[in-house]
């Protein structure tokens, strides 16, 4: 009897081992990162829940950097009742990740209740907009700044179609934006396109898309981005300089003071990676744009450095800080993303 029992247990163990082996061979999938209630929610259903916060990844990258994670996590923390979307070109419509893919960053983000990851299908996104004809005839392989240009186009189309707030993936949210329709000033009389928000089908964005196509120039960095926003802003508004920390009104949208998102200008971007005697309060800011595009020297966020950026991570994206940041012996290196401008 004992021998039969041992034989039965051995067979059972053998089958169990075989099952586990086959399981480990299966490709990873986005659904594996998402709780079941999340995987059942489509993009359209989510957008019906109210104003969304939108981030884009227009490269094929499938491992978000710590800065991307911090941007998304901080938005989810500031807007707990709103869906926070990360649309990634590298995801396909079946939500499949590459075989043998492991992603602590995606796992971290997917565990946040109001964060949702979706594929970015540009052709579908551009349908029924002025950008569709441009997209279907462009040869992206010859475009020097394609990742940035496609990101510029995608953010216009998405916010025009669905409304919400677009943010670059190097923007750390610190408090809610009180405006529905707004552009963010990078400096006096010059608009950023790194943060903006509108209700669906706002005519300003439709005109931006028309101008994008009519005045397309792929050889000048930013021509389809902040330069485009500024060109149209000057058509719509009689611009004047800001007075103190007051926003400007332009017809039915606001032009927000540079302090709201750019209290540290692009020329001073290294200040984020320095230790301050007294750190700024940022009391007049809604979010902080870290100017990652300027960081060509690869400055890193290092745990224990007491730099301004480390302290921003610790306060506004604590999960990212805890799980993804390393100390001086294993510093997180910078990776360029087209959503970082």
TrEMBL record:
Gene3D superfamilies: 3.90.550.20. Pfam families: Gb3_synth, Gly_transf_sug. Signal peptide: none annotated. InterPro entries: A1-4-GlycosylTfrase_dom, Glycosyltransf_32, GlycoTrfase_DXD_sugar-bd_CS, Nucleotide-diphossugar_trans. One of its GO terms (cellular component) is Golgi membrane. Keywords: Glycosyltransferase, Golgi apparatus, Membrane, Transferase. It is a single-pass type II membrane protein. GO terms for biological process: epithelial cell proliferation; negative regulation of epithelial cell proliferation; protein O-linked glycosylation. GO terms for molecular function: acetylglucosaminyltransferase activity. Residues 198-322 form the Alpha 1,4-glycosyltransferase domain. It is found in: Golgi apparatus membrane. PANTHER family: ALPHA-1,4-N-ACETYLGLUCOSAMINYLTRANSFERASE (PTHR12042:SF16), LACTOSYLCERAMIDE 4-ALPHA-GALACTOSYLTRANSFERASE ALPHA- 1,4-GALACTOSYLTRANSFERASE (PTHR12042). Belongs to the glycosyltransferase 32 family. This is Alpha-1,4-N-acetylglucosaminyltransferase. It comes from Capra hircus. The gene is A4GNT.
